[in-house]
Design goal:
- With 298 residues, the chain is of the alpha/beta class.
- It has one domain: Rossmann fold, CATH 3.40.50.
- It contains ten helices and nine strands.
- A seven-stranded parallel sheet has the order 3-2-1-4-5-6-9, sandwiched between helices.
- Helix 2 crosses helix 10 and helix 5 runs parallel beside helix 8.
Length: 298
């Protein structure tokens, strides 16, 4: 595609009344809750058809049903485990069918933490983090290659979700930090391989503190179950618990001295950054790591 053609395509979408992502088809992994679910809703509101990929079928269907209640046929739930290569094949196949033979956007958002200090992290903890955050996104992008390595003058975008743990490191998260650092290398390689001939944009978003189950108190009991049945507790141990009634007051008064905005992001705020990167307003942003932190770690 010539540069002028690409610019015309961008301008077309900037002026498209049906939404910034009108006519596009997106896969969002880990979209059954939290940031992924909010991103799916925002994408659908901007005209995209969205595939909700999540290991929890009940949650994935709930998100899809809520989107389709507003406009039928806008979302499809495809539940499964991103660590299963057969599921990845099925996910891409069903997305292409849902999208009329096209896929435009992949958001590799699925992930979780399995913390431990370096001298106590097991091989299983280490291998699982790399499998979830590196191998699964790679397999999904590889499987979707035939739908991205095309010259039809339509946008093609890969967004890989990382963390500031992957940029700065974080005590107790050697496995997670290494995996999230690896995401950056994958992103930039996609940009360099698929950008020149096909115009594919590939960017990383590195989140800081977002109020999700990964940053809630571990004592609240959230967990994820690995394929072999191991339950992995999620959250931050020892974090002060708050009742539902007191949560809003706590959020208003709790101090976050290391965040210049003095508060964490909401899942919807985090999702807005994903929409922004996917939008035509970011048409010339490629191979970048965009930090969404409220100013933390400047």
């Amino acid at each position: 595609m010539a540069p002028s053609d690409r610019l015309n395509q961008v301008n077309k979408h900037l002026n498209y009344p049906a939404g910034m992502l009108a006519g596009q088809v997106a896969i969002i992994t880990g979209a059954g809750q939290g940031i992924g679910a909010e991103a799916a809703r925002l994408f659908a509101n901007e005209g995209a058809k969205v595939v909700i990929a999540d290991i929890d079928a009940k949650k994935a269907n709930a998100v899809a049903d809520a989107i389709n209640a507003a406009e039928a046929g806008r979302a499809l739930a495809v539940a499964g485990d991103v660590l299963d290569s057969n599921y990845i094949k099925e996910l891409v196949k069903r997305t292409a069918e849902f999208g009329g033979g096209k896929i435009h956007i992949i958001v590799n958002n699925a992930g979780f933490t399995w913390d431990g200090v370096i001298h106590k992290i097991t091989d299983k903890q280490w291998d699982t983090m790399l499998a979830v955050h590196n191998t699964a996104p790679f397999r999904l992008v590889r499987e979707a290659a035939p739908y991205f390595r095309v010259k039809d003058q339509e946008p093609r975008i890969v967004i890989n979700i990382s963390s500031t743990s992957g940029i700065h490191g974080n005590a107790g998260q050697a496995n997670y930090a290494v995996a999230k650092a690896g995401v950056v290398g994958l992103t930039r390689t996609i940009a360099k391989e698929w950008g020149p001939a096909f115009g594919v944009r590939s960017n990383t978003i590195a989140f800081g503190y977002v109020t999700t189950r990964l940053t809630a108190a571990k004592e609240e009991g959230a967990f994820i179950t690995t394929p072999d049945g191991t339950k992995v507790a999620l959250g931050i141990p020892g974090k002060q618990l708050a009742t539902k009634k007191g949560a809003e007051d706590k959020a208003k008064t709790e101090s976050f001295p290391d965040i210049p905005l003095r508060r964490p992001a909401s899942p919807e705020e985090a999702a807005r950054s994903i929409l922004g990167v996917a939008s035509p307003y970011f048409s010339y942003v490629n191979g970048e790591t965009i930090r969404v932190t409220g100013g933390r770690n400047m």
